[in-house]
Amino acid sequence: MKLAILSESPADEAALRVLVEAVLRGPVRLVRPGLRARGWPNVSQVMPAILRHLHFNTDADGLVVVVDADDSVVHTPHHDRPDYFHPQCRMCKLRAVYRQTMKKLPPAHGRERALRAIGIAVPAIEAWYLCGRDPTVSEQAWIEGQQKGVPPYTRAELKKRVYDTERPSLEHETRRAMQEALRHRHDCRRLEYDFPSFAALAQDLRGWKAAQPGSGAAASRAGRPEPASSPVPAPPPACVGAAAPSAANGDLPPVKA
Amino acid sequence: MIASIHFRHFKALRATSLHLTAFNLVIGPNGSGKSSLIQAIQRLRFLSQQPLDTELQPSLSPELQHPELVFRFPPPNEGIEVKLSCRAGMVCDHLHVSAISSDNWEVLKQSLVTSRVYMFDHYAMAAPCTGAVEEGLAANGGNLAAVYHVIKRFDPGAFADLQAEVVRLLPEFSGLDVRENSEGLLELGLILREDREFIPAEGLSQGVLYMLGYVALAFDPRPPSVVCIEDLDRGIHPRKLRELCDLLYRLSYPEQYGLHRPPTQVIATTHSPYLLDQFRDHPEEVVIAEKQGRAATFSRLVDRPDLKELLQEGSLGDMWYSGILGGVPEESDPAAEAVTKNPLQP
């Protein structure tokens, strides 16, 4: 499978490739040169041109987009109702950009459209890296903090926890991102459970796999409806959940530093 | 390190102060005092090397607005104040030190003497040079080959680290070497990964040479106390700016890179929104130079009360370009001019 990853840094791209391969359970090839965005809202601004480029000029099967949520509204299953769009939700916004762009493009390279997978890291991708290592970090914890008006942690604190410095070099950032992503290579369920916005990305990706030639679903790929998103997967066997994470979790213990 | 500078009638800097941190990125339009800031530090360096003038500042004509610069320093030199002023004319040529102890000034002076202003010239960097390295990397980078040669010869371990960094930053190359040419001059070059061909500096691009200059600076075992760089982004691809910042952070925050040496204060100017984007997590390092009429002032981005909200809305670079952060050129107002020339008749 060939895909493009639109991210904010080479460190993110390296880690996302590992996570995407973990979800797809197989290697992927990346479109080169790698795509970069300058954070929000640049991602949404540059995405239409990227989609057009991928659709007409490459043989990419799809585009993976991951951006930080920062302090924006977190996507919830409530947002997945038909014809619903939350203007402050980055997932809703990026899906709308994708829909509006692709509906204008005619088929090319024998395909109806490049597929898309969108993940919003809440509040930043470093939270994903801490999953399973720091039980206080989860999407639910962040949402509860937002509701109380007291965020459980800041972006800067997450970065410090992951990189152990306030000014990581790109080399160090990449190394740490890869180390943490590789922890999830064989089992992403904890990450999906603690971070439903990652689960949405994973579900999009699994939809791609189903759409591959030879799979039963391939024939229906063209015009495939938008996949339902933000599915909160069943918790992993011994995972007690984001609301009450436990280091005593037998199957998925927090990884020690 | 310099804690603060107060400017009075120094070029466009009529009356403004600037508090400096370990790393400072100065943005602003042309003529807003960015280069004047660096010239002030150059002036401090020059005058601090001269014998201390024990005479009091001569009385000057009050009608003339003579320039004056006041420097203050962080601990342990917080008790020292250095004032640069004029004996006559309009050039700062008089240095007066207010210090609790003269010993403190002597120590501080030795540190200030090592401050450097860099404006790399890729033609000078590419030219073969002699082996002389008297004061580290030259201001234009013209002795780059000699700097690498000295490290290679006297500190092979440091040279290996430096070479590894170059190869990481420039993956199309597999190594770096300094060779003596037929005229006995030193020639720097990179070795192509593909076929091991030695590409002399004259065959390297402007941006690659600048990057080699910044690596030499960042890996200098005895770096300057203060480094000023004009147009830091010049010649560097926007995607390489993050790594450029990393190199300079190595100077400013050595402890975060596992280095046990005093930090180097970095003051860099730029006109690149892409470089400014790199400072989203550290807006306290950004200084905005503002020009209104003939007067320029400095302010720190972090002093904006609405910064947190602004950072949620977009990239710093885009916001700067839009004008909401200030630090943009003044523009004429054709509509206002037209109205002035043709006022509405009652």
Supply Rg of chain A.
Answer: 18 Å
- The total strand number of chain A stands at 5
Main pleated-sheet profile of chain B: 6 strands, mixed
| Helix segment tally of chain B | 11
Total number of distinct structural domains of chain A: 1
Give me the strand/helix succession of chain B.
EEEHEEEHEHHHEEEHEHEHEEHHH
Mean pLDDT, all residues of chain B: 92
Average pLDDT reading of chain A = 85
Q: Which word captures the global form of chain A?
A: globular
Number of strands of chain B: 14
Radius of gyration of chain B in whole Å, from Cα? 23 Å
SSE class of chain A: alpha/beta
Helix content of chain B: 25-40%
The amount of helix of chain A comes to 40-55%
The percentage of residues in β strands of chain B lies in 15-25%
Largest sheet of chain A: 5 strands, parallel
Which shape of chain B, going by the Cα principal axes?
Answer: globular
Oligomerization status of the protein chains = heterodimer
Give the largest chain-chain interface (CB within 8 Å): A-B, 19 and 21 residues
- Low-confidence runs of at least 5 consecutive residues of chain A: 217-232, 237-257
- What's the end-to-end separation of chain A, in Å? 33 Å
